[in-house]
Amino acid sequence: MELYVPILVLAVLAAGFAVFSVGIAPFTGPKRWNRAKLDGYECGIEPTPQPVGGGRFPLKYMITAMLFIVFDIEIIFLYPWAVAFDKLGVFGLVEMVLFIVTVLVAYAYVWRRRGLDWD
Amino acid sequence: MSTLTAAPITAPTIEYGELAPMLIIFGAAMIGVLVEAFTPRYLRKSIQMPITVLSMVGAFALTVWQGVRGVRSAAAMGAIAVDGPSLFIWGAILLLAIVSVLLINDDDHFVAEAAAVPGSAEEDQALSQGGAHTEIYPLVLFAVGGMMLFPAANDLLIMFVALEVMSLPLYLLCGLARRRRLLSQEAAMKYFLLGAFSSAFFLYGTALLYGFAGSVDLKAIATALSTVGGQDALLFIGAATLGVGLLFKIGAAPFQAWKPDVYQGSPTPITALMASGTLIAAFGALLRVFWVALGDLDAEWTPVLWGVAILTMVVGAVLAITQTDIKRMLAYSSIAHTGFLLTAVVATGKESQNANALSGILFYLLAYGFATVGAFAVVTMVRDPGGEAGHLSRWAGLGKRSPLLAGIFALFLLAFAGIPLTSGFFGKYAVFAAAVAGGAVQLVIVGVVTSAMAAFFYVRVIVLMFFSDPAPEGPTIAVPSMGTAAVVTLSAAATVVLGVFPQPVLDLAHTAAQSLFVR
Amino acid sequence: MIAMLAVPLLGAAVLVVFPGPARHPWYGAAVSGVTLVLALALAVRFDHTRAARPQFTVDVPWIPGLGLRFHLGIDGISLPLVVLTALLTFLCFVHLVRHRPEQGRIRALVIALLVLEVGMTGTFLALDLLLFFVFFEIVLVPMYFVIAVWGGAGRRAAAVKFILYTLLGSALLLLGLLLVWAHAGTLDMVRLAQAQGAGLSRAVQIIAFLAIGLGLAVKAPMWPLHTWLPAAHTEAPTVGSVLLAGVLLKMGTYGFARIAIPVLPEGAAALAPWLGAFAVAGIVYGSLACLAQRDLKRMIAYSSVGHMGFVLLGLATLTPVGMNAALFGNIAHGLITGLLFFVAGGIKERYGTTELPRLGTGMLARLPYLGSLLTFACVASLGLPGLAGFWGEMLALLGAFQPAAGLSRPLFLVFMAVGGVGTVLTAAYFLRMLSHLTHGRPPAGTIGGGSRGAALLDVSAYELAAWTPLVVLTVVLGLWPKALLSLTDPVVQAYLGTR
């Protein structure tokens, strides 16, 4: 348990610092409002007008993002196998094929349902 | 680099044969996805349905075969336990899933176009064009596969994966009811948010227990209980958060809040699948975690589960009395039954005692599963113009309109109430007997009193059906399709047979429980 | 033996499948008649010299996984009750031949009554604790329907009260049975009774007796758990009331004699004073409540509370005399109260009401046969020597005079004295009722509900046929109590270990 004491101390220090900074700012800092400060931050340019509540977002962004994550993770799984494929032998090959087939099935579904078309 | 390559790697083994029932289900689900991708719309349903049912029947046959062969081992490097209880639970889940699929196969339970805004023109258009989401079938298969993996997982990580594989399709399926779309979407949203929350608890508990034992293997955790010292905080917090995740899935109080909303909003066939299959799977997993991994810690968790069991029984029975919606009432009754089952989970002791308690739980789960699928099947048949007639007052006088249907529903209700000569009685008796033998007498006192209370509201529905005058413009009784008729008949038959000659199934449960969980 | 259960069950099953026979007025009577003949055959073939041993036993494993055996048998204390059950059911059906329920649905009623008969007979035959419980519960459902469908105006509330009380009672009963099973390791009543509580610690026995006792006391019913009874009796149809009073209440007291006392002797000894106290409270309360009743059926219901008080007092003494008294009282009460409810049903049919003030006076002059039968039943019920009611009460008080060793004698003497007051009160309310109802001059013009006015029929042939056996048996048992006591005594002696 003693091993964790420094971590605990560090966590307390970090939390304390954060609370302190946020808490002290309103009392010590100068308050000079202007419109630009109250606006949402969009890389320094004028904010694009948005409907109330953020408005609707085309679903295709989300599908693209999800597909990206799926293939991203597939690559991550491929790396360790690629390093040790000879030692894992047939077992590794079979498992990897199964894994890729699984992803492929999903890919085929997305493709046929036109999830890959942008328009 | 050199150190990495120099280290010898022994390839792990996977016993495909022993895992075959599960692999069939997952494989069929993948084929189902391909069918969705490559076949024309009008053919899909007639391909999906046979694939689903046949794969389940095949998996069931394989499960039975393994049971006959007496397979008892931990497969996949000890990550998945194919032991007696697993096989029994697999069989039960598959049977109930087959029955539920017959119900799911019925038209017009599911939405035509899930993405359309409820009540919009797009929805009407999809409806008139006869649109349907046949993805339901692969989703159900994935869920069932997850249900099978969940109680068999002998390793907390596998268990977590199974939990997600089981839950994610169910979150989706919950939101696909054709009628009362908003309620259905609300149910899906609630189930997803609360389910994700509980998964987080589960994962957190897994991490903490890994911190304690240095392994996620249930057996290794059990060993670590006696060998590792000075890490009690990790152990207790880990066990507690893991328990929260599991208790959420079985719907024990105080984690029961999702059940009524989800049961009410979901398409009724999906409710039937959840109420039977998910409950069985989650109980299997709960038992495995608490009995195998934390078995030697029972002095610590028993008092907590006592409290949970009492609370669950009381909350379920008391709140059920005030319900006016039939599906909500059945949801609360499911909570009460969860509480009854928990009385036997607590009743641990010597090995023979554990085996008795386990076989009681297994039998109860199967008996309750059939009765509940049957009851929900009846619910699908009583309809208003706007969908199923949910409000209890609409059920008044059903016995006069359709004596047969009302009689069968009364049978299921009597089984829930635990009246002798129905399956519910022997289930309850077996569980309570195990609890008494395990020294949980006070718990059984609460159990019998709440079950008498619960019996009251079941009887109230029977009275309503048979002795009240029918509402002037009462619900219509849908002419059952072959599938629904088969479901109702099968469930009623199972309820009666398990109530009069439960011996074969009890024997089976007993044999399954004899070896307890593989360690 | 099994036929006793199979015949009514088959009879009911046939009706479920084929609706036809129900329309025949004699169907139910025929089925229950066969059952009665079987019961009488059993009684004749019963070996009276070995009354203490269960005879005609059937013992097959039913569900070995739960230790449940289909174990039936008949001995000295169950034989009279089985015959009584068969008789009363048969008479109910005979009554139904002419007196169709107003609500119709005769087929459902016949089914319910037949299933009820299966449950009641099974309860008395069962020699396995769990089997006993199964039959005990089976009785609930049809009885509930009988009250809820064919009852009077307040039937819904009465039925709900009935089911709530009895369900809670059976829940406790189940708990007690589970305790016995967990500690004794068997559910066989015969072996449990022979063991005389061996292997059960005193604490377990007391808790188990409390649970089982409460469960049975609801059914008996013991004051203060009786409040479901008047409502149920008043609202139930005649046949329901007869079976409720004649048989169902007996299941509670029979359970005491068969299970609670022999299986848990130490628990019984510890709690007997309480049982006795509640019993005499019931006697006095029942009679006082009767004095205040304005409704005939309600009055009979409260008188049942009083009479079952005597039965429970007899049981509480834990002596052979007291137990015999209880078992005798059981049968006598079944016969007499059955008769009373039949007569009350007849009155209700004629006058359209059972409220005493509206019934007016002078029944003997108006309806001489009905009036005499009512008088006979009341006199029997108040315990006139020479009729069956007398022996049960007298022997119960005698038992209380000399309770079993280990029980406080002064306490039971007080019980006896209070019980004696109870008998006087019982006599008082019955005589008051009789003097009001049967004597005097019939009021001029119409009576009671009055639409049927002057043309009231006296006892019909069917009614006479249904009632005569009860009258005869009441007289026979009153004059020759040994006929029954010789049956029950050996069992009681064996149970209490006094022989």
UniProtKB/TrEMBL annotation, chain A:
It is an enzyme of class 7 (translocase). GO terms for molecular function: NADH dehydrogenase (quinone) (non-electrogenic) activity; NADH dehydrogenase (ubiquinone) activity; quinone binding. InterPro entries: NAD(P)H_OxRDtase_bac/plastid (IPR023043), NADH_UbQ/plastoQ_OxRdtase_su3 (IPR000440), NDAH_ubi_oxred_su3_sf (IPR038430). The chain crosses the membrane at residues 6-27, 61-82, 88-110. It is a multi-pass membrane protein. It is found in: Cell membrane; Membrane. The keyword Lipid biosynthesis does not apply. Its main location: membrane. Pfam families: Oxidored_q4 (PF00507). Keywords: Cell membrane, Membrane, NAD, Quinone, Translocase, Transmembrane, Transmembrane helix, Transport. Its EC number is 7.1.1.-. It catalyses: a quinone + NADH + 5 H(+)(in) = a quinol + NAD(+) + 4 H(+)(out). GO terms for cellular component: NADH dehydrogenase complex; plasma membrane. It comes from the Bacteria. NDH-1 is composed of 14 different subunits. Subunits NuoA, H, J, K, L, M, N constitute the membrane sector of the complex. NCBIfam families: PRK07928.1. NDH-1 shuttles electrons from NADH, via FMN and iron-sulfur (Fe-S) centers, to quinones in the respiratory chain. The immediate electron acceptor for the enzyme in this species is believed to be a menaquinone. Couples the redox reaction to proton translocation (for every two electrons transferred, four hydrogen ions are translocated across the cytoplasmic membrane), and thus conserves the redox energy in a proton gradient. Belongs to the complex I subunit 3 family. This is NADH-quinone oxidoreductase subunit A. It comes from Sphaerisporangium melleum. The lineage of its organism: Bacteria, Bacillati, Actinomycetota, Actinomycetes, Streptosporangiales.
UniProtKB/TrEMBL annotation, chain B:
The chain crosses the membrane at residues 20-39, 51-68, 88-105, 159-179, 191-213, 233-258, 270-291, 303-322, 361-382, 403-426, 432-465, 477-501. It catalyses: a quinone + NADH + 5 H(+)(in) = a quinol + NAD(+) + 4 H(+)(out). Coiled coil: none annotated. Signal peptide: none annotated. One of its GO terms (cellular component) is plasma membrane. Residues 153-453 form the NADH:quinone oxidoreductase/Mrp antiporter transmembrane domain. Pfam families: Proton_antipo_M (PF00361). It is found in: Cell membrane; Endomembrane system; Membrane. InterPro entries: NADH-Q_OxRdtase_suN/2 (IPR010096), ND/Mrp_TM (IPR001750). GO terms for biological process: ATP synthesis coupled electron transport. One of its GO terms (molecular function) is quinone binding. It is a multi-pass membrane protein. NDH-1 is composed of 14 different subunits. Subunits NuoA, H, J, K, L, M, N constitute the membrane sector of the complex. This is NADH-quinone oxidoreductase subunit N. It comes from Sphaerisporangium melleum.
